[in-house]
Amino acid sequence: MCGTGKFKVLWGLEKAAACPRCGSFKDHLHVPRCHAVSVTQEWDRRVSALSTWMDMLLTDPSIKTLMLILLGGVRDHILPSIQAISPAVQPAFLAQQVIGYQGLLEGRIALLWLPLQQHYLDEIRGCRSVSLWASQLSQELIALAFYMWEQRNSVQHSDNNVQLLARHRTAIKGIHSQFDMGPDDLPPEIKPMLTCRRQVLRKSLMDKESWLALLQQERRDYRRSLKAQHQSLQTLFSLHPPGL
Predict the structure, then answer these.
(1) Is 243 a member of any domain?
(2) Structural domain of residue 182, as residue ranges?
(3) Is 158 helix (H, G, I), strand (E, B) or coil?
(4) How far apart are CA 43 and CA 244, in angstroms?
(5) Which among 14, 1, 24 has a CA at the least distance from the CA of 152?
(6) Angle at CA 106, nearest 5°, toward 137 and 23?
(7) Which of 27, 26, 32 has its CA nearest to residue 145?
(8) In this structure, are 64 and 171 located in the same domain?
(9) Tens digits of per-residue pLDDT, 141-197?
(10) Which residues in 146-174 are b (16+ Cβ under 10 Å) and which e?
């Protein structure tokens, strides 16, 4: 289990399992798949870096192409027909599909890639270790997933968090509503809190929410108090009608 919205709701730490970047339901599978603009940009940047890395390590071009296709499938689930893939690499491609997209992001690569890479290195007379290549590729895939988590965490704790933005909007709307209703149904000691709208709007989010919660509660309590007084007077007059 990890600290995403789904589990934070189960643990009682959050009220909604919403992604901080797009606002949709969020579990650990959503982190690299979120389609918020900032996530897409980060994903494209990291995949591009991985592509460059594969070139530097003399990765078989056919392996590189299929790895990039598989990574594209992590987010879009659109893969080419198996007939469009060279028969020589089809078994490795299918084996990787069996492992799955999440397995790919966890660095689990199909063993069938290794003989293909070895054959390519033999062709170009490369002297790199194919087992080292596989190990480093696995680490790079894990790093890709890690960077997507880092991007998610940076938004989670920033002002761009869609949940925080929604809370800001709700608080601001509530503050305007309180000022528009005026001080008439507030107790005398609370009325000065409606002196300056601009000053309240400049408060931090937590202070805005605290101010709003206090005003709403005081207004409810005062209205209940007036209603209770009115009902008491009605009861009194019903028992002792005027003029009798």
Answers:
(1) no
(2) 162-238
(3) coil
(4) 84
(5) 24
(6) 125
(7) 32
(8) no
(9) 999 999 888 888 877 766 667 677 777 788 888 989 989 999 888 888 888 898 899
(10) ebbeebbeebbeeeebbbbeeeeeebeeb
Q: Which residue has the tokens 């890395």?
A: 53
8 A C-beta contact, residue 54 and residue 67: yes
Are 76 and 140 members of one domain? yes
How many Å apart are CA 73 and CA 162, to the nearest integer?
26
- CB-based contact 156:31 (threshold 8 Å): no
Tokens 């879009």 label which residue?
76
Q: Phi and psi of 8, rounded to 5°?
A: -65, -35
pLDDT in tens, 70-119: 999 888 877 777 888 889 999 999 999 999 999 999 999 999 999 999 99
Six-digit token pair at 35?
């389609």
What are 188's two structure tokens?
């005398």
| Residue 181 neighbours by CB under 8 Å, 6+ apart | 219
3-state SS, residue 18: strand
- Read off the tokens for 54: 């594969």
Three-state SS at 25: strand
The DSSP bridge partners found for residue 18 are 25
Residue 182 lies in a domain: yes
- Same domain assignment for residues 50 and 11: no
- Taking only the tens place, the pLDDT of each residue in 10-19 is 445 455 567 7
Overall number of domains in the chain = 3
Residue 7 has pLDDT above 60, yes or no: no
Give the C-alpha separation, 176 to 207, whole Å. Answer: 15
